[in-house]
Each structure stands twice: as C-alpha cells, then as structure tokens.
C-alpha cells in the first residue's frame, strides 16, 4: 500500500479507478484479457463498509478512496485517475513501436480499450514515444482521450474520456 500511495501522490482527485467492474455477467472482474480473475467470493477484497451497494442502480465500476485504500462501487461515467495494481504496473500503456502495439492489441479485452494517450496526444507516463497508429480519419479532435480498437486491427481513435472501457497497463519499475 505504501508504494501505491507514493505512486498516487500528486495525482488529482480523491478517488482512482482500479480496473474492476461488473461486466456483462454481473460478477466483479478485473479489466484483464481473461476477465475472470476476480469474483465476489474472493477473500482479497478491500470494500468500504456497506459497499458494494449499487446506489441508484448505476454503480457498475469500482473506485478506490486514495486516503484509506478502500473500494466502493461507482458510476462508470465518473471522472477519476486510473491506477494499475501490480508491483511493476504503474500507468496506462504507452506504445513505442509496432511490436508493442501488436502485443497490446492481443491483450485487449472487448471492442475498445484505453491506452495512455490523451489531450494534446501526449503519453500519461510522460514518455517521449512518437509512435502513432491512428485510424485514417483520426484523431478528429472531438475528444481528448485515445483508445485502441480490437475490431479495427488495433487502430487508435479519440473518444470521450468518460467512456467505460477496459484499459491496458504498461510494465515499468517504480522509482
């Protein structure tokens, strides 16, 4: 938890997305290619007292309160920072070359999935990669976040930052 808190220090907002949602089956699952790495019977849950409660029938994703690390179900349209929960995964994927693009596309879950390209088309981890794989009519500058599409051979397009999509994290040592 100490490493996680250090990673989150300086990031905006009180809450972060942790990549857990109900999915089509109604069971909690991580945004991973296998999709079934977590079920409600697992003992490694970190829910806040009274959660999950699906207040208003619209809470299908999971956020974490940064102050205490407790989870709560949340409206998937809420705007929070992403966090990736593995000792070596710290940010949305940055793509440096065609080989990495192919690996990321192969790991994609569903139609669209988030990569770490946003706003002025800079990488969320501050890397300097200039590699791009936009669809022919993209970015059309209507939206400020980038997603890759499994259905379109992994080509990228800009979409609304609040759209619910799985995401791919990159591997990197924490310093």
Structural class: mainly beta
Could you state the CATH homologous superfamily of the largest domain?
Mannose-Binding Protein A, subunit A
User: Can you count the beta strands?
Assistant: 11
Helix content: under 10%
The average pLDDT score comes to 74
Report, as a whole number of angstroms, the end-to-end distance: 15 Å
**Unreliable segments (pLDDT under 50, ≥5 consecutive)?**
33-38
The backbone outline, from C-alpha atoms, is: elongated
Number of domains: 2
Q: What fraction of the residues are assigned to beta strands by DSSP?
A: 25-35%
Q: Give the CATH architecture of the largest domain.
A: Roll
The whole-angstrom Rg is 16 Å
Provide a count of the helices: 2
Chart the SSEs and their pairings.
Blueprint: H1 2-8, E1 15-21, E2 29-30, E3 59-65, E4 71-75, E5 81-82, E6 89-92, H2 98-106, E7 112-118, E8 122-123, E9 145-149, E10 156-159, E11 169-171
Parallel strand pairs: 1-5
Antiparallel strand pairs: 1-2, 1-3, 3-4, 6-11, 7-8, 7-9, 9-10
